[in-house]
Amino acid sequence: MTRQDWEALALDLGRRAADGISRVKVPKILLRRRGDARENAERARSRAEKRLWVLGAAFAAAYLTVGGRMAVLASSDAEEPQPTAVLDAPILSTRADITDREGRILATNLATDALYAQPREMVDPAHAAHELAKIFPDLDEQKLLSDFTGARRFLWIRRQISPEQAQAVHDIGEPGLLFGPREMRLYPNGPIAAHILGGAGYGREGVDSAEVIGVAGVERYFDDRLRDPAQQDQPLALSLDLTVQAAMEEVLQGGMTLMNAKGACGILMDVHTGEIIAMASLPDFDPNTRPPVATSGDQSDSPLFNRAIQGVYELGSVFKIFAVSQAMELGLVNPDTIIDTKGPLTWGRFRINDFHNYGDQNTVTDVIVKSSNVGTAHIALMIGAERQQAFLRSLGLLEPTHVEMTEARTGRPLLPRQWSEISLMTISYGHGVSTSPLHLAAAYSTLANGGLAVTPTLLRQDHPVQGPRVLSEQTSRAAVSMLRQVVARGTASLANVPGYEVAGKTGTADKPRPSGGYYDDKVIATFSGLFPASDPKYVLVVSLDEPVETSGTEPRRTAGWTAVPVAAEMIRRAAPLLGLRPTVEVATADGVTPAAN
Fold first, then answer.
1. What CATH number labels 244-577?
2. Of 368, 390, 417, 428, which sits 20 to 30 A from 494 (CA to CA)?
């Protein structure tokens, strides 16, 4: 039906109603539409009622929650709100011990306290400042009083204190002075092995704990391993022998004093494993009270400077055995080959001389025994610059050592800009290239152990480490024999310790001036030795900075008079500690019993 039809029907119904018609027949479709509209209205009303009930319940729950929380807060004591979220990783204060090769403690942890103040809680700030200045003389009483009476709410006084100091502070009776638990790093042997251990300090800090981190030496190099909670109960075992280390430092300190040197260092190394049994640098320090880094002056004069690793020097004639060993390995010479030693040797404006006149000719062995610069330079000319450079690199002398210390990378050798022919000759006798004493010890270990390259290490090794072959065993034996002759009848005769067959080479190098050229009265005196010569087990390097031996009528600076006696005393003290038995001496007809060679 159309709209017009509906309208006509409605008019017709209206007329019938007006005429009194009582019963009207309504079409079914109209009745059905009226029923649908009624049902829709009921459903809409029901939905509205449900929404009102839900909204009312939500308001009631919110009201009850707020009211309940207000009631709890009203009945509790006021306190500082604490954050519940973890903003960062927890502070780990644990740190594994460090031991020597025999398990003796070199570094450990000690439970102690930190001291801090909350000035607003103080009853008598003036009295507290006065008493603290008496307990800690380095604190300024007026400065403390100013801090206690100022606007500060928190103040660190000491990061770590001893139990005796803690008791003294407690006796002050000031509620604003508080203690926090701490673990401090303790070095029970004081300055022994100070440069190797390095030291530790605090990183992130809280009132209840502090992060102990390594700042130098093996403490810093192995920081992650030492702080690993999974390895906390597993000490880091170093290659050092504490007893030998202590003996070396004692002898080195005495030798440095007797020889009037400004500095000294010593290294004792196992020739088969590269293990550093002892290594010392003087002057030294106590890692328990590590001094600050120098901000002015020559850093090499600081007690923090490790001369054995960081110091690179022209080491002089100790290098001569490298040129001779390479020439023998190449088949250019043998121990009895005659070498021209007539001086001076002239190259352009440069003149190479010997310390003494050793004659016009000498055997290769005597070139080493007498320490002829001229003879060594002639041997180097047979080798050539390119082969010399390659050989020194195979000995590890042209790059930083890989020993496990952060300072090792700073001990980078100083090399000539251009490896010319004059560089070839001067480097053969230890001038024109600067290396560290540790470089020298590793290179001599290679010569001594049969020709296998050695990598120095501060970690205890359970078995020999096989490096690449650099020299044949035959060349190695010949080189050691020559070094033994240097001690038996050459420049290192004062190193002839009875019973221990010492072999080695001296080196006396003029110190370079910062402005160019060399000093006339300042040298680096070095002895690099090995023992026992018949079956080498250890290499010892001793180097003195600016020594002067003054027992005679004239001052003597050469290594034979300065470094060699110190090295001999070290061997005399250390060999029995290393378990080396002296060679049995055979009696002679006249009653003299010289040590067997």
1. 3.40.710.10
2. 428
